[in-house]
């Protein structure tokens, strides 16, 4: 079954339920209060069917539900990403997603360490970004954060660029 068929079937089932409820309310029921409650239920069912179809269409065309935003959004993170601040990191990335950019670059140059909970938070937001059609690029990841993100499979959803930290030594080049 294709990406639209199953949600369309669910929406059609909801609409069939609405038709049946309306028919019962108008043709069979005599009490006004019961007829009114059935028609209210019918309106709710039609609304639910509309939600199912909208969700199906958004999954069919990721990233097209919102007006196009800027081409690239850069999010610079710093400090250790762990359980204590994973929610703050997720909030910053969700804020970047609101503008529906074509590309989100996450700069980890100032992130020395990422715990498993921190990398899981980044993975969840990366999946959300991919579903909306945004490309994710992880920039300047130090060895430990890069390894932590690859351990949770982020390398399959995002592109790593500038993986080598810049040379800061004072010696000759």
From TrEMBL:
Residues 70-173 form the STAS domain. CDD domains: STAS_anti-anti-sigma_factors. Gene3D superfamilies: STAS domain (3.30.750.24). PROSITE patterns: STAS (PS50801). This is Anti-anti-sigma factor.
């Amino acid at each position: 079954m294709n990406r639209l068929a199953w949600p369309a079937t669910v929406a059609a089932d909801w609409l069939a339920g609405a038709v049946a409820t309306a028919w019962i309310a108008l043709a069979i029921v005599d009490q006004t209060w019961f007829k009114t409650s059935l028609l209210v239920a019918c309106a709710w069912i039609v609304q639910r069917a509309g939600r199912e179809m909208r969700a199906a269409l958004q999954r069919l065309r990721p990233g097209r539900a919102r007006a196009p935003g800027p081409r690239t959004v850069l999010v610079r993170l710093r400090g250790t990403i762990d359980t204590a601040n994973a929610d703050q990191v997720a909030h910053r990335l969700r804020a970047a997603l609101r503008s529906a950019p074509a590309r989100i670059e996450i700069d980890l140059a100032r992130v020395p360490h990422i715990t498993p909970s921190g990398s899981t938070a980044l993975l969840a937001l990366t999946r959300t970004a991919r579903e909306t059609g945004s490309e994710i690029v992880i920039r300047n990841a130090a060895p430990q954060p890069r390894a932590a993100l690859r351990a949770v499979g982020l390398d399959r959803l995002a592109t790593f660029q500038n993986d080598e930290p810049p040379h800061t030594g004072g010696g000759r080049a």
